[in-house]
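Task card 7
Instruction: Convert sequence to structure tokens.
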Amino acid sequence: MSRPPQASKHADGRRRCWWAAGGDADYVRYHDLEWGRAVHDDRRLFEMLTLEGAQAGLSWLTILRKREGYRRAFAGFDAARVARFGARQLVRLLRDPGIVRNRLKIESTVGNARAFLAVQREFGSFDRYLWQFVQRRPQIRRPATRRQVPARSELSDRVASDLKRRGFRFVGTTIIYAFLQAVGVVNDHGRDCFRAPAAPPASKRRARDLVGHLPDSRSACAPTVRRGGRRQSAHR
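Output:
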């Protein structure tokens, strides 16, 4: 039996990863302009870490459509300001229809902002901390089918474990794999997708495979494994 393709052709003639094949404008825009592109700005990294955690149990499209609400609610993802949120801000956020009004997720965002600042103090920036896991070179995978994209990897296991040790919450390995995809630490654009990067030289592919993903029976793709609009697995 043939495997499902990784990329689907759209009306504009471009092939895109299968998860953007539905043609939803927000999905297509996110796929074309953001997903898989290397992010080195700390504020953007904090934003994506927050949004990926907020998505747990929900569809990524729901979060994309609430993104502006999150930016307003969480001070433009200024971690220093969010870290100072207290009881009054919590009450306000729990009443804000522009975000997912889940107490644990809201509280984790504030706690994560404080942990984020601690990482910045230790490493100089969250960017420096995050990209050290891949020696500042993205993992380029170019999967041929959606089934070749895991829900987690050895890399996401390591990053998630270290983040938890540092006090972050909503950072299970599945969430972190989606985060790594989103900010370009891992590039999972299908090889037929017009956004797919060039294949790395064979020597680099061999080195990458030494630290590659763990086999996983779950299919996944960006923003990691979604069936029926939701991530397939529990995150924590």
